Amino acid sequence: MRFLREPLLHFLLIGAAIYGLYGAFAETAPEETDKTIVVSSAEVEWMQTSWQKRWNRPPTPEELDGLIQQYIRETVLYREALTMGLNQHDQVIRRRLAQKLEFLAKDLVALTPPADEELVAYFDANKDRYQEPVLYTFTQVFFNPDKRGNATQCDTGRRRSDQGHIDGARRCDRGCRRAGR
After folding, report:
1. Which listed site, 69, 134, 177, 181, has its alpha carbon 20 to 30 Å from 56?
2. How far apart are CA 71 and CA 47, in angstroms?
3. Where are the domains of the chain?
4. Number of Cβ within a 10 Å radius of residue 68
5. How many helices (H) and strands (E) does the chain have?
6. Considering the entire predicted model, what is its pTM?
7. In 3D, which of 47, 42, 75 has the Cα closest to residue 61?
8. How far is CA 17 from the centre of its chain?
9. H or E stretch covering 98
């Protein structure tokens, strides 16, 4: 009974259970030796749609049969090329697959312009991202009392009155009257 407590036995039993469940529920992969080519109704519909887009009319029964035969022939040749390994280390195939993937990605990402309502809703939700920051500017004016003497107060008062400071204009008038200017 001691062997029932062994971790190795638990590991093997769990592994066997997983293997059994996988075998019971996993989809069976087609065998490599399977030579059957299945043309589904979706593929036939795709062939008809492609024909109609190209020729602006549905294919006749003979033309549809020819499309199906061509598809089967291409599938046989494709499988044979894969069996021979012609897809490996081939720069042309590599570029073509990359190009095809790019086309698919562009189709998936095809942008449609948003409606005006969507733009307004987005803007309202993100207004803070589009606000201009408050800008402050200042101008520094230096009146040197060593060079200007008593005129410094009058000049600063005038400068303040030019910028709309009423208080500065009053002080300037009083200071300049006393100084006689």
Report:
1. 69
2. 9
3. 34-116, 145-179
4. 14
5. 9, 0
6. 0.41
7. 47
8. 43
9. helix 91-108
